[in-house]
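Supplementary Note 3. Input sequence used for the single-chain structure prediction.
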Amino acid sequence: MELLQIQYFEKIAKYQNMSKAAEELHVSQPALSSCLLRLEAELGAKLFDRNGKKLVLNSYGRYFLRLSQQILNLVNESRVPIDGNKLRERINVGFMVYNEKLFSYICDFQRENPDIAFNVHGSTMNSAFAYSAYDFIVGLSTESVVGAPNELTLEPIMDYVIVPREHPLASRDKISLEELKDEEFCFLKDEEGGYEAEYKACVLSGFIPKCLFVTDNAFMKLRFISQGTSFGFIPHSWKRVYEACDKIVLIPEKNALKEARTKLYWSDMAMYSEANRRFLKYVRERLETED
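The predicted structure, written as discrete structure tokens, is reproduced below.
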């Protein structure tokens, strides 16, 4: 596989049209088509579905696009002129699930250690990404992280139900899912059609939630739900963000079966880096201090 193939693939995915991508790349359309066919042959899978003249990424194509963007970002970073005396060490952190505590640790650590910088990748929907590209990965204890056998517990998971402030349930100390079967919700939904985990939890509790607003963007969810017109769910790590909204209240979800933890994962190889060792030591000390 060549870098040029990846660059061409990204352009085709951007325009969803072979002739527009060829024009942008200043190559002939037959040459671009041939390059795509070679790439698909090497991967052993099709990347696009045809819809008339439009090329639409299929599920594998969307996955490969995310990997391609990471590769191209690394290539672009490597082209930056290097001064050995000024080059910072970089720590790569992948968030499979957002965690406010670790994010604040990253900010505080960087301020105290200006010689170290961070590359942070995150997704609101746990979309697939290359685990090996990261020094540390933040994930749930219920999920396996390939190639990262070492782990450190950051905090237990506690989900909150977002309730409109004027709703009768707003005065409750805790709320069970079963009590929400007649309410309307705002949910995150990824590009492959999957809802956030609490949607499935509602189904398992005996009802299909009524979706008033669906988005693939966490900020859009916050903007809509802050108007106080629908119910929703957030993990503890987002609590501070939503508490600032005056038209909603956050009530702990009543679910004794949940025992998930947010954890920090890393590989043995990550510890070859002094910067990674310093950061891990810092995180351990902060956790011990706060316990």
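Confidence is low (pLDDT under 50) at residues 124-128. The CA atoms of residues 6 and 134 lie 20 Å apart.
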